[in-house]
Structures are given as structure tokens and as C-alpha cells.
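sry for the spam today, last one i promise. C-alpha cells for design, 275 residues
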């Protein structure tokens, strides 16, 4: 059981993209783990958004049945008008917006030579245009709420080339890191902190096809120094740290949460004895 911090988010309102998978009876994503903890730690309300409307509505319903103030809204993060509608609805319902967590993303496991250009552009658009539009939509409402925090979910892939697949994905995630630094500089004067998390392999709907394939799953587990896949709650701990006042002196930073993968390789050991 993860440690909870009582009342850490008293009165705060959070908006999350790509967060339909918040239902406890189904496999949860980063958004799901984050939302439940945020509300258990005093959060006043959440707006979960995604393009999977059925899943999102079921999740919001379950949150309301648990006594929390939660709404689901459709938000394709590449659509500027939809961002405006969601932020307007958030302000109308709660009168404030304190936290934005950008989670939406897609991955096509193809190489540079194989991938369709339309899919390459879509991957870039969701990762990079999505957080650009979101940052613009929330900045003034957050400033009017007394400041806030934006957390962008990139990936450990953001700082690595892709040897075989996921080239568009890793490129787009690298773009998220760079954008977050500019946003941190430009929004600091508005009282808004912008930070990035770089998760490793975590079992969520995004990676379920890998996790449930014994060969694919073991291939990854063997490369994690801590010896296991991450859980959504592991990453939620980082998201909520960056969203909280505990991170009040952090902006433009990157939090690597990958079980040690990016530190180097541990398995298989080099037969000659070193790495
Ligand atoms: N799970 C991992 O191992 C892992 C590791 C590193 C980074 N990430 C990143 O973290 C993010 C969260 O994924 P997750 O693991 O919680 O899985 P998830 O599948 O629950 O979340 C991703 C969500 O993005 C949504 N989405 C796709 N296109 C969208 C669009 N145009 N507009 C709005 N939403 C859209 C999907 O419907 C999905 O619900 C993804 O961006 C992923 O790239 C995941």
C-alpha cells in the first residue's frame, strides 16, 4: 500500500488528458492511479478527459459513486476548440484550475523506413502540439487561481534513439522535454511550474499487449535493475509530487522513473566480467 499524504491537495482542481482508464475494475493507466490518490489526499475535484468516451464515462461514474466530484469530457488534445471547451467547463464547475497532467499519447512500433508519414505526423501532433495547445488553454485560468503546476508525461525513450521501432514516439517525447523547458521559463512569472516525468515500462492499457506476452514481458523485466515492471501507482507518486507544494522549487525539471533502465545495462552480465 502506497503512503498517502492527508490533505495535500485540499481545495485543488486537476485536469488530466488521456485519462479514461480510471476505473478500478479495469486495468488503470497513469491517469487512473493519479486521480484516485489526488482525491484521497484532499483534491476538490477532477476533470478526466480522453477520446475513449465510454471508458471515461464509466470511470467518472465510479468516482462519483465513491463520493468524489469528477466529470469526464471528450478532449482530443490536438483540437484547440476542444481544449477551450474543457477549460471553460472546468472553470464553470469548480471556479479554479490548479493542475494539468498531460498523459495522452500513441505509439506505432515501426522504424523510420516502415512507418506511414501520416502516423508519424499524428504521433508528433498528439505529443507536442497537444501539450502546446493545453499549456496555452490553461495558463491564464491557472494564474487566476493563484498559480499552478503542469506535468508532462514523456518517456525514458525521450533521451534515447530508437534502434528498431517507435522512432516517431521517441522523437515526439524528446520534443516534450524541450517544450517543457520553454514553458517553464515563460510561465514562471505567472506562478506556474512545468515539469516532465520520464517513465520506463509500466503495466497500463498502453503496454498491456507487451506485458501479457511472456517473451516481450521478460525481455523488458530482464533489463530493469529493480527487477520488475513499474505500476501506475509508482508513476502517480511522481506526478503528485511534482503537482504538490513539495516541489515548489522545481520547474523545467525532468523526473526519471524507470527502475534504473537508463542508468545502464545489468543483464545479461558480460561474460568477460565488466559492462
Ligand atoms: N505505460 C508505459 O510504460 C509508458 C511509459 C512511458 C511513457 N508512457 C506515456 O504515458 C502516457 C500514458 O499512458 P498510460 O500508460 O497511462 O496508458 P493509457 O493507454 O491509459 O493512456 C493513454 C491515453 O491516451 C489517449 N489518447 C490517444 N490519443 C489521444 C488524443 N488525440 N487525445 C486525447 N487522448 C488521446 C488514449 O485513448 C489513452 O487512453 C502515454 O502518453 C504514453 O506515451 C507510458
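last one done:
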Amino acid at each position: 500500500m502506497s503512503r498517502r499524504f492527508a490533505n495535500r491537495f485540499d481545495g485543488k482542481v486537476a485536469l488530466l488528458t488521456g485519462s479514461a482508464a480510471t476505473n478500478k475494475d479495469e486495468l488503470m493507466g497513469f491517469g487512473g492511479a493519479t486521480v484516485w490518490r489526488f482525491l484521497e489526499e484532499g483534491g476538490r475535484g477532477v476533470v478526466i478527459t480522453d477520446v475513449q468516451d465510454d471508458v471515461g464515462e464509466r470511470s467518472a461514474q465510479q468516482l462519483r459513486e465513491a463520493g468524489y466530484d469528477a466529470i469526464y469530457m471528450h478532449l482530443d488534445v490536438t483540437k484547440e476548440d476542444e481544449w477551450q471547451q474543457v477549460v471553460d467547463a472546468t472553470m464553470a464547475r469548480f471556479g479554479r484550475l490548479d493542475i494539468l497532467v498531460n498523459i495522452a499519447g500513441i505509439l506505432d512500433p515501426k522504424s523510420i523506413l516502415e512507418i506511414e508519414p501520416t502516423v508519424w505526423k499524428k504521433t508528433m501532433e498528439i505529443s507536442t502540439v497537444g501539450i502546446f495547445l493545453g499549456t496555452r488553454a490553461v495558463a491564464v485560468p491557472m494564474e487566476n487561481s493563484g498559480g499552478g503546476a503542469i506535468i508532462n508525461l514523456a518517456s525514458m525513450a525521450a533521451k534515447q534513439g530508437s534502434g528498431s521501432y517507435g522512432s516517431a514516439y521517441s522523437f515526439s517525447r524528446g520534443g516534450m522535454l524541450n517544450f517543457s523547458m520553454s514553458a517553464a521559463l515563460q510561465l514562471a512569472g505567472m506562478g506556474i511550474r512545468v515539469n516532465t516525468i520520464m517513465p520506463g515500462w509500466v503495466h497500463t492499457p498502453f503496454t498491456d499487449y507487451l506485458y501479457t506476452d511472456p517473451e516481450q514481458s521478460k525481455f523488458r523485466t530482464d533489463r530493469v535493475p529493480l527487477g520488475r515492471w513499474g505500476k501506475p501507482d509508482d508513476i502517480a507518486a511522481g506526478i503528485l509530487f511534482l503537482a504538490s507544494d513539495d516541489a515548489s522549487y522545481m520547474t523545467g525539471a525532468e523526473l526519471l522513473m524507470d527502475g534504473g533502465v537508463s542508468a545502464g545495462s545489468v543483464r545479461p552480465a558480460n561474460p568477460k566480467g565488466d559492462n
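The first strand starts at residue 13 and ends at 16. ok im logging off now
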